[in-house]
Amino acid sequence: MNTDTIAIHSMIEYTDKKGMSLVEVMGYTAHAFRMIVDKEAVEVGSYSHFDWPFHHTEQLQNLGFTVRTIGEPNHIPPSPERLAEALDLIQTSLDNGIPALGWDLFIPEWGVIYGYDDENKVLRCRDVRKDGDLPYEKLGRGEVTELYVLTITGSRAVEKRTMLKGALKLAVDHAYRRQRFDDEQATHRNGLAAYDAWIEAFANRTVDPFGNGVNAAKIWDAREFASRFLLELAQHWEGASPQDERLRALAGEASEQYAVVAERLGEMRDMFPFPHGGEPNSDAQAERATALLREAKAAETSGIARLERMLEILEQPSGRSFDE
Q1: Within 13 Å of residue 255, how many CA atoms lie on the same side as its CB?
Q2: Quick one: average pLDDT of 197-214?
Q3: In 3D, which of 32, 18, 21, 6 has the Cα closest to residue 251?
Q4: For strand 65-71 and strand 131-135, is the pairing parallel, antiparallel, or unpaired?
Q5: Measured between alpha carbons, how far is 197 from 322 in angstroms, rounded to an integer?
Q6: In whole angstroms, what is the distance from residue 169 CA to residue 173 CA?
Q7: End-to-end alpha-carbon separation of the chain, Å?
Q8: CB atoms < 10 A from the CB of 314, how many?
Q9: Greatest CA separation found in the chain?
Q10: Is the model's pLDDT at 205 over the cut of 60?
Q11: CA pair distance 238, 230, nearest whole angstrom
Q12: Cα separations (Å) of 42 from 112, 156, 195, 224, 300?
């Protein structure tokens, strides 16, 4: 459901970090902990309401990659010069053996650009709707007419401990700080505040059924990955120091909390199935959804507290004891 991270995982398979699981990529990019909701209607684009170049870059940097991006979420079709620049970026990456990330190839989601045919002037692309050819002139001129391309340009080795510390910083920051261009007038909220925005839309009975169904499925999916990522840390994190033992214990506790979040949001997903979305503005459905969201927020708040304690351990100087 979270198509930018799925596409990024596909790209990584053609780099020196081939073999990272989708669970690892969701966790170490902190996408598993992402949540953005519009308080007015839970509109369909809530999940993509973030600064794409900035956040994708910092996520991939945490994995050790350098990247280049062209475009942004602005609903402005590219000029011929901008399109030519994007095509050159894509072709250079493909010539180096690494696919590119693209937006709104066949549907307003992220997908992979994995080939090109200069003679026929088409890109070979795959997203959740289609696997096929996209004419050069259609790049950035799809359903929402905006250009966005990302390519991986370099890679360096990163220790798992450093990667985990970076991911936890991203997750905790997302949980507490507004992340969309610092726009005080914006109706979207991220992290823990997103639960309050979601509850507000239900309280006002202004929920868009389609948008709510899309976002419920995406956020549920992310939290399933969060629980699995943390469980794998609890089971497989290496190290015999007291700090490592404490990291494993906290990861296990956090995994249990995120499993509760995923369970509550899973019920939301079933109540409001994609694509028709059910009846979110009926009194019974809205009241049940509000109760589920309050329970999910309580569990996530507890989970984030564990992540913060894990981060504190990782930020201790090497060899220093940690008093919980």
Answers
A1: 17
A2: 98
A3: 32
A4: unpaired
A5: 37
A6: 6
A7: 37
A8: 16
A9: 65
A10: yes
A11: 14
A12: 27, 39, 11, 21, 19
Per-residue pLDDT at 324 exceeds 50: no
| Best CA proximity match to 288, nearest among 207, 187, 223 | 207
Quick one: which H or E segment has residue 267? helix 242-271
| Distance, CA of 245 to CA of 132 (rounded, Å) | 48
Which pLDDT band holds residue 8 (cuts at 50, 70, 90)? very high
Cα radius of gyration (the chain): 20
> Alpha carbon 170 to chain centroid distance?
11
Enter the DSSP assignment of 77. Answer: P
Q: How far apart are CA 213 and CA 206, in angstroms?
A: 14
pTM: 0.94
- Give the closest residue to 260 by CA, choosing from 221, 225, 220, 299: 299
Cβ atoms of 309 and 324 within 8 Å: the answer is yes
Q: In whole angstroms, what is the distance from residue 232 CA to residue 239 CA?
A: 14
